[in-house]
Amino acid sequence: xxxxxxxxxxxxxxxxxxxxxxxxxxxxxxxxxxxxxxxxxxxxxxxxxxxxxxxxxxxxxxxxxxxxxxxxxxxxxxxxxxxxxxxxxxxxxxxxxxxxxxxxxxxxxxxxxxxxxxxxxxxxxxxxxxxxxxxxxxxxxxxxxxxxxxx
Length: 151
What we know:
Layout: E1 15-18, H1 23-43, H2 46-64, E2 76-81, E3 86-91, E4 96-107, E5 111-117, E6 123-128, H3 135-150
Antiparallel strand pairs: 1-2, 2-3, 3-4, 4-5, 5-6
């Protein structure tokens, strides 16, 4: 990796994010799947509800292992936002690569979705929230995302 000046248009140093698994986000994902299950059981014919429940179970299990939730080897463990608006991402498995942010949404005070485009055209994402980043870094990230969306 090449070294960079880590200022963002004069607005401060690079933002270094170290993602951790967030139990709050995982619980939210499970609750959403649970609510979908209840709706299936209440609204569908029993045979369809069984088939739908099996699909929901598979979906919930797959969601818990998604890289964006931080539990797989390809999950983003560390991300650094540089002044040229590129990112250096490091997976839990140790692979490092550069990427460009294609989407960043901050919902409320503690939930952030980040989506990057990587070399080769594939995309990766990370979700962080309560407990996923320290509060100071989370506020800096949210502020920089507001600047990024405005540019």
